[in-house]
Amino acid sequence: MSEPTGLRARKKVRTREAIADAAVSLFLERGFDRVSVNDIAAAAEVSKPTLFRYFPAKEDLVLDRFADHQGEAARVVRDREPGIEPVPALHRHFRAGLDRYDPVTGLSDHPEVVAFHRLVFTTPSLAARLARYQLEDEEALADALGEGIQARLLAAQVLAVQRVLARANWQKIAAGRTAHDVHPEAVADADQAFDRLP
Question: What is the model's pTM?
Fold first, then answer.
């Protein structure tokens, strides 16, 4: 009885991934505004209504790549070890991402990642949708930090620091430097930025 449900769930995941992969491939090849939803549905071999069941808006096809990181800062704060304050826990987490060359830190020189970030940062509708995701992350982090204006202010500061650091890393790599070359600067910048947080 559970096998068909498991099989059905796996098929849905595969369909969702196929749609997102087809979309990102087309967007990177032609540009976000030059690709229609019909183009994506055809490339993924699904109907337009099926595509919209998985992704309510065209922008979601791109930003689905950020879904794994949605609410990540709040999880870091909630799951931190006893005795570790929130900001040091978030600092360690960001540093670990730099050491893994995690694309979310901007420190990845894989050509597709660099092109993907360029697509997101230079397409106004994607940048606007990303800002909405970031606001949701800010609210989740504020809830994890506690109540009141102090929690909201700290959440906004932490996420602004992460956003600025990631974009600075990406810009250096987009200018032609390697992630390995940028890494020491990225670590120093992160240390300095997090040390200035309350």
Answer: 0.81
